[in-house]
Amino acid sequence: MESDNSENNKFMVKTKRLQKVYNTGYPAVAGTSFGIQKNEVVGLLGPNGAGKSTTFSVLTMDIPKSSGEVTVMNRRLEDFDTQIQGKHLGLAAQSNVIWENMTVDEHLNFIARVKGLNPAEAEF
After folding, report:
1. Rounded to whole angstroms, what are the CA distances from 87 to 24, 50, 51, 112, 118?
2. Which residues pair with 37 in a beta bridge?
């Protein structure tokens, strides 16, 4: 899905008709499309079971998509090298997944260091 089209290249993350169907046959994510531009912060809102966590699990490559297109930094998700490009992505979970007593800044800085960023790159 790589493209020289500047409209497509303005998005750091883009989904087109993303679908995830589990063994039940019922789609957890049914045809979701959206784009995230550089320096945007995005959250998904919806009731329990709407597919928010599943969408992020696909984007972070924790689970495979069933169909649709996903690009991250203009690369198809299937071609994404987490060792190289992965340090440029982050996900703030709904709860602090490491230590309860860490501040938000401490948590973000810790994750940035784990991903190999130096302190100057990790300033928030």
Report:
1. 34, 28, 25, 7, 11
2. 11
Q: Is this structure's pTM higher than 0.85?
A: no
Helix/strand/coil for 108: helix
Residue 104 pLDDT > 80: no
SS3 5: coil
Domain ranges in the chain? 6-80, 92-124
**φ, ψ (nearest 5 deg) of residue 32:** -80, 130
**CA proximity to 60, closest of 52, 10, 40:** 52
Residue 78 has φ and ψ, to the nearest 5°, of -65, -25
CB 66 within 8 A of CB 20: yes
CATH class of 6-80: alpha beta
